Amino acid sequence: MSYAVKEIFLTLQGEGGQIGRTAVFCRFTGCNLWSGKEEDRHQAVCQFCDTDFVGMDGEGGGRFTDAAALANAIETTWGTRDAQQRFVVFTGGEPLLQLDSELVHLLKQKGFYIAVETNGTLPVPDAVDWICVSPKAGAELVQTCGDELKLIYPQEGLNPQDFIGLKFTTFRLQPKDDAHKQEHLQKAIEFCQNHPIWHLSLQTHKLIGIP
Ligand SMILES: C[S@@+](CC[C@H](N)C(=O)[O-])C[C@H]1O[C@@H](n2cnc3c(N)ncnc32)[C@H](O)[C@@H]1O
Ligand SMILES: Nc1nc2[nH]cc(C(=O)O)c2c(=O)[nH]1
Ligand code: SF4
Ligand SMILES: [Mg+2]
């Protein structure tokens, strides 16, 4: 199978349980909850997306004709850094529209620890090491277990407490970044303090000005 990739870049994981760790980010093109076009945002299932996942024109992006070609590009982006620490984060868009076990296994063979950021509407392939699910109001949740559930807060019609029975190791609340982000941050802090099972998750890459 071929893969449409928006961008591949080296950065630090800015969010969640792997925060601060040097990572290759592979951002797939396309999402099942929004076309990515601004004119469609108001009618999308997911309306607060902070990401450009349209096209294949980003740094290191393009059409990869097979899993080996994409795995090699990820390995090249990691470069000569300590091979013991190899870490890749698949995101998007929605990575599970394209990430398959062939690609996962090739990267495991290269020694990568593999993380995925998903909206939870599609199942995660076996052998992924770190599953971060970020449910969206109005979208069916299919992937109901994983390492972290990272809920963007607030979302109309979603009560964080309704997720607590699911099989996730940690539960995080990430303030929605939009024109009202300061209010959302204050509400998220208050919610975490009153419901301590929830840990606050900040988008630290935005705070420090890295991609
Ligand atoms: C761009 S999404 C791509 C992965 C996948 N489609 C998903 O939604 O989880 C990556 C992460 O950014 C989060 N995110 C997107 N827009 C955001 C915003 N405006 N404020 C805070 N987090 C946001 C998502 O919930 C997800 O955890
Ligand atoms: N540094 C950095 N960390 C991230 N963690 C999740 C991200 C994403 O867009 O999926 C992201 C991102 O875009 N940049
Ligand atoms: S599901 Fe993820 S990638 Fe898709 S629009 Fe929402 S935040 Fe963006
Ligand atoms: Mg991001």
TrEMBL record:
Keyword Cytoplasm: no
Domain Radical SAM core, chain residue ranges per copy: 18-211
Cofactor note: Binds 1 [4Fe-4S] cluster. The cluster is coordinated with 3 cysteines and an exchangeable S-adenosyl-L-methionine.
One Gene Ontology biological process: tRNA queuosine(34) biosynthetic process
Entry's EC annotation: 4.3.99.3
UniProt-annotated binding residues for [4Fe-4S] cluster: 31, 46, 49
Record: residues binding substrate: 12-14, 27, 91, 211
Broadest EC class assigned to this enzyme: lyase
Short name of any one Pfam family annotated for the protein: Radical_SAM
SUPFAM superfamilies (UniProt xref): Radical SAM enzymes
Catalytic activity: 6-carboxy-5,6,7,8-tetrahydropterin + H(+) = 7-carboxy-7-carbaguanine + NH4(+)
Pathway: Purine metabolism; 7-cyano-7-deazaguanine biosynthesis
Molecular functions (GO terms): 4 iron, 4 sulfur cluster binding; carbon-nitrogen lyase activity; magnesium ion binding; S-adenosyl-L-methionine binding
Family according to the record: Belongs to the radical SAM superfamily. 7-carboxy-7-deazaguanine synthase family.
Protein purpose: Catalyzes the complex heterocyclic radical-mediated conversion of 6-carboxy-5,6,7,8-tetrahydropterin (CPH4) to 7-carboxy-7-deazaguanine (CDG), a step common to the biosynthetic pathways of all 7-deazapurine-containing compounds.
Official protein name in the record: 7-carboxy-7-deazaguanine synthase
Organism: Commensalibacter intestini
Taxonomic classification: Bacteria, Pseudomonadati, Pseudomonadota, Alphaproteobacteria, Acetobacterales
Gene that produces this protein: queE
